[in-house]
Design a protein that fits this description.
716 residues, two-stranded antiparallel sheet, Neurochondrin, mainly alpha, 36 helices, elongated
């Protein structure tokens, strides 16, 4: 055997010599046949492959691919087959696989896949798949494959079911893993056709194929465009639901259940709960899904070494996705999938699972903090803390030092995060985002800062300073984004929630605000932010948060140098006046001939979100007037007082509720007390009359007292 092998190697070397020195094509062709025969027999090592390339380069295989005249008595595709065999040989060298001479052959590879495959052409198809696999692994490969149409060719090859079609599917999985967005942008119809076939096979399968498809299918479920947008996608979702309901309703081994849970999680990640039909069957399936996820989390995380088994982190992360959906569905009031009994049962089951998550996080060591599974665990706990504030309170309080420390470490280090099934969707094409764990904890922290014990822990752990730094960084991100109106971004949502946390601290711990320099720094940021933010009407909710927080803090920090009539302070209060003054307008009252007070059109769509902030802002602004002597002049300069007096003079009293009357009166009384000029403006606009009309007793008294004092002074 060794002798035969040695003889073949010697023959191969002679052929290489002929290839280098051949006088004509027939000599070269004969030598080439022997070389390609050796290649196909797998008798060529890396060194010899390189010798073959050095002997003939890319030029000769390229000639073979385009030649239209095969040798006598040979099939028409002979030259093309030889060329492809040589290229497949070269592609086993990673350096050559990414060469432009290989990449520009991609259209030829696609043509072979799309051509009818006779029994004597199978080796060509095998060689093409070998070339494409090598190109996919090259740095420039995925982009070139997508732009040169390989996704469509692979989809068609798989759907045709010809020789090597399973390799086409494997290559598609690999391409989607590294370039999902590009693939779907360019070839959505073809990929949808593959998903349609896979989902049909999944529904029909009665053997282990069903579970094998559970591993493949998640790669073909796009995050964008949504599958629910067209009928073919909706049909796929329907088949996947029925197939999963069949699988998860059966008795399963661990190895069968895990891929099914991962498939369900990928569907939730892409479509929420929209793929689960309404009705009894759908609600039972959803409850079963969340139940299974909770059981899996408990069984895994309560073990002494919970994640040592291979693939366990991926399964538990998928379960986190399902648990997060469970939280959302338990809170859903409009067209809920679950009835109240199911919701209560699931909340109890999820409470136990989150107890296991907390137990696991308490065991985490410092050297494990970079593990992405820790990030996924903190994120899902953040989702629970955001919505469920009464259960596991003691356990969460005990964990708060870890959560603050973890969020601080990631924030300071700006650690990169790769895409996780449960983590926020990031590009799967190489870009990375910071692990913003704090963003997922903010809603929970907002609830907790309203309560004494958790608030004290957060303060003791330095959360205010961290949140101030975080606010500043998020503000920088927001101001670097496009100023065009866009859906609410995670950055803007984080800024709003951080304002909510600080509002809680300002209301409950004013002494902390006075003594902690963090809040002076925050005040400086707010003074500069609002004037930039307010003109951008699509940021009105964030502007309301910034204005109200700034006004609340200004009452406490009124003695600071930053608020003593500085340019920044004047610009902030001018912007705050615009926010407060533009919220209401007079409009025709359909029920009478007069005018009624109404929310301004610019505020109408967001009024539910900013109503409480506006009332709190009015109260805070009024509280600032006696503390900042220059404020009455600012109100007059902005013509707020004049506009408010005119508004109250013209609208019907019945169109104003008690809360509005109280808010307006608070501002008017403080301005009247602080400034003779303000009193004169109010009186010149028949202030005594409408104060009486609206039942503003405090304003009436203030105007009467101040008026009497003025008369007495005048008499003397």
């Amino acid at each position: 055997m060794a002798s035969d092998s040695g003889d073949r190697l010697a023959t191969l070397k002679r052929c290489l010599s002929v290839l280098r020195d051949a006088k004509n094509d027939s000599e070269q062709f004969a030598a080439l046949l022997l070389v390609t025969k050796a290649i196909r027999a797998g008798e060529v090592d890396a060194k010899t492959r390189r010798q073959i390339f050095d002997a003939i380069g890319f030029t000769f295989p390229t000639r073979l691919l385009i030649s239209q005249q095969p040798p006598a008595d040979c099939p028409p595709h002979t030259f093309r087959a030889l060329g492809l065999t040589l290229l497949a040989c070269f592609c086993t060298d990673p350096e050559l696989a990414g060469h432009s001479q290989i990449l520009n052959k991609i259209p030829t590879f696609n043509d072979v896949l799309l051509s009818p495959c006779n029994p004597d052409c199978t080796s060509m198809v095998d060689d093409v798949y070998q070339c494409l696999s090598a190109v996919l692994a090259a740095a420039r490969g995925p982009r070139e494959l997508v732009t040169k149409g390989t996704v469509s060719a692979l989809c068609q090859a798989y759907l045709n079911g010809g020789h090597g079609s399973e390799r086409a599917l494997t290559l598609l999985v690999g391409l989607l893993a590294v370039a999902e967005a590009r693939c779907w942008q360019r070839d959505a119809p073809q990929l949808l056709a593959v998903l349609s076939k896979l989902s049909s096979d999944f529904l029909k399968a009665e053997d282990m194929t069903k579970f094998e498809l559970c591993d493949v299918l998640p790669h073909f479920i796009p995050l964008s465009p949504p599958l629910t947008e067209n009928s073919q996608g909706s049909e796929c979702l329907c088949r996947l639901y029925k197939g999963l309901a069949d699988v998860l309703g059966s008795k399963l081994s661990q190895s069968q259940r895990d891929p099914a849970l991962k498939l369900a999680a990928s569907l939730v990640q892409a479509c929420g709960a929209e793929w689960i039909p309404a009705g009894s069957a759908g609600s039972k399936f959803l409850a079963l899904l969340v139940n299974l996820a909770c059981v899996e989390v408990r069984l895994t995380l309560e073990e002494p070494d919970p994640l040592e088994a291979e693939g366990k982190k991926e399964v538990v992360t998928a379960c986190y996705v399902l648990m997060e959906m469970g939280i959302q569905e338990c809170l859903r009031e409009e067209n809920p999938l679950l009835d109240n009994v199911q919701k209560m049962q699931l909340m109890r089951i999820m409470e136990e699972a989150f107890g296991a998550v907390i137990f696991y996080l308490r065991q985490v060591k410092q050297e494990e903090l970079q593990d992405l599974f820790i990030f996924a665990s903190v994120r899902v706990l953040g989702a629970w803390m955001a919505e469920e504030t009464s259960s596991l309170k003691q356990e969460i309080c005990d964990l708060l030092p870890f959560l603050v420390d973890y969020a601080r470490k990631l924030f300071k280090e700006g650690s990169p995060a790769v895409s996780l099934p449960q983590a926020e969707v990031v590009s799967t094409e190489g870009s990375a985002l910071p692990q913003d764990a704090l963003r997922f904890l903010l809603p929970g922290f907002c609830h907790l800062t309203a309560e004494d014990r958790p608030r004290d822990i957060l303060i003791a752990e330095g959360a205010p300073a961290l949140l101030c730094e975080y606010f500043l960084r998020q503000w920088e991100v927001l101001t670097s984004e496009s100023t065009a109106p866009a859906p609410l971004t995670s950055t803007e949502m984080s800024l709003q929630t951080t304002c909510g946390i600080f509002l809680n601290l300002v209301v409950t711990t004013p002494d902390l605000v006075r003594r902690d320099k963090t809040f002076s720094s925050l005040m400086d940021v707010l003074l500069k932010s609002l004037p930039l933010l307010l003109p951008q009407k699509h940021h009105l909710v964030l502007a309301a948060n910034v204005a109200t927080l700034g006004l609340m803090m200004a009452r406490i920090l009124a003695g600071s140098a930053a608020l003593q009539g500085t340019q920044c302070a004047k610009e902030f209060f001018a912007a705050a006046i615009r926010f407060l003054s533009q919220a209401h307008t007079a409009q025709a009252d359909p029920s009478s001939d007069g005018l009624a007070l109404a929310v301004s059109p610019a505020y109408a769509s967001t009024w539910d979100d900013i109503r409480e902030l506006w009332f709190l802002g009015m109260q805070a602004w009024a509280g600032c007037v006696p503390l900042l002597p220059w404020l009455p002049h600012a109100a007059l300069q902005a013509r707020w007082l004049q506009g408010l007096a005119q508004l109250l003079s013209h609208v019907a009293p019945a169109s104003m509720d008690c809360e509005l009357v109280t808010a307006f009166q608070a501002v008017l009384v403080e301005l009247a007390r602080a400034s003779q000029q303000c009193r004169d403006v109010i009186l010149s606009h028949h202030g005594m009359e409408w104060a009486n009309l609206y039942g503003m007793a405090a304003l009436e008294q203030c105007l009467a007292e101040q008026g009497g004092a003025s008369s007495t002074l005048g008499g003397k």
